[in-house]
Amino acid sequence: MTPEPPVTQEEIENAPLKAKIRAGEEVFKRAVEEYGAENITVVYDGDVRSSVSLWIVSRACERDDLEQPEVSIKSGEDAEKVVEQLGFEVTEEEAEYRVRASGSFSSGREFYNHKEEGLETDPLPQFDAEEVLEAFWLHLVPDVTDFEFDEIPEPEEVESEEVPLESVYFGEGSWETEEKGSEEAGEVSDDEDIKSKLRDLGYM
Amino acid sequence: MKIIGVDAATWDIIKPHRDELPNFSRLMEECETKTLTVDEKPKSAPVWTSIFTGLSQEDHGHTDFIVDEELQKREHIDADFVWEVIDDEEVDQRILQVPAVYPQLNHNVEYEPVGYGVTSDLDELDEDMEKLRKKSVEVLEEDPDFFAVVFMQLDKVSHFYWDDEELILEWYKKMDDVLGDLLEYYDFEGEEPLIVLSDHGFAEFGEGRVQTLPKESPAGELKGDHHEDAVLFTNNLDYEIDDPEDVGKAVLDYYEVGKR
User: Fold this and answer.
1) Strand B194-197 to B32-37 pairing
2) Low-confidence ranges of chain A (pLDDT < 50)
3) Which residues in B lie closer than 8 A to residue A201 (C-beta atoms)?
4) Size of interface A-B (CB pairs under 8 A)
5) Rg of the Cα trace of chain A?
6) If you average pLDDT over every residue of chain B, what do you get?
7) Hey, are the CB atoms on A104 and B124 less than 8 Å from each other?
8) Nearest-CB residue to B116 (from A105, A107, A197)
9) Phi, psi (degrees; rounded to nearest 5) at A26
10) Alpha helix locations (H) across chain A?
11) Beta-carbon separation of B112 and A106 below 8 A
């Protein structure tokens, strides 16, 4: 059973973008505390949401002085470049617990998926198409037990130059801390992702 | 009125496996059935646009998901979709995932598909189908006046696995099961119109009138392609459907748009 969301929908919708980023960092920190970074692999699939997820993982590591997990690249043009740019080591093997920095995640799935050979974690799920980071809050925080809305510390400033990703991964728009800006950038990058996926299937 | 779209559903699988597809079979028994031959290009984007605008491809002018390197959006289509001309105040209408463009069109429903609904990965397709089934049931529970949904997964599976008959049948069974859940909310003894249809059929490369996608794609070799013969089931529909656009015309006729 997925735990009851500790916050209301209204609180989720009204949470500032910075708080959502901070919440994402907190979720990852808890995964590391529970399983240990050495037992976690981040699975990166190359799309924009995956890039943002990885960026948040890197922020969490830096902020809380966590050991960086290794990253397994599933797909994505220039993926290795992006992963290394964020300071992660690339691995071809996946550890016992996986953090899936991926766009494909069902909102109904449990935070922890029990498998025969251990516990798989999927704490970095799908972002809302209309606002890149919205789903970080929607899907992650409700899955973390004992997490209270008012526990989120005042987030750090998020400046555009702090996002160490090339503009292509956010479409043509630049990264902005204002929600409107990120929404527009998110839509553009979603379009690019869709075009890329359609081309993969043969649509030219 | 209820419309259930099953992209790429073809008689060539449904009829020979009728015994294993109880809900398709029920539709064959209880509905009027016919082959809806798409005389224009049997491509999903323009055909679903015709189905839900009531206009031929020539009239709405929408040709594909990507045109001149640009991802097509709602604003690129110079035509009204039926839900845009039906008055929301008079008709409680809920539209889910019409693939005229990507992201697919919704109306009065908030929904996002898994992986944008564009994938050849079977696990993702499975998640996508289950998510849309769940959402459809949730919407149907609210008993809207006009409900429409389109499931795209069979198309993706067919493109990449058409040569694997067992797998294709497995996915038709999944779709059949989804149909069963949705048809729980339809009273075959009542008077409500029902339309279940595909936008095109499916076949090996070369069997269809036109080739719609290349044989090779970055995601792998495509094993089959669209065929112009689509499937159509109707019940309680007082309108003759000969072309895809007739579906849209039938919807507007039923809700008497333009008659009042």
Assistant:
1) unpaired
2) 1-9, 11-13, 102-154, 156-183, 185
3) 118, 120, 156, 159, 213, 217, 219
4) 70
5) 16
6) 93
7) yes
8) A197
9) -65, -40
10) 9-14, 17-35, 48-64, 79-85, 134-135, 179-200
11) no
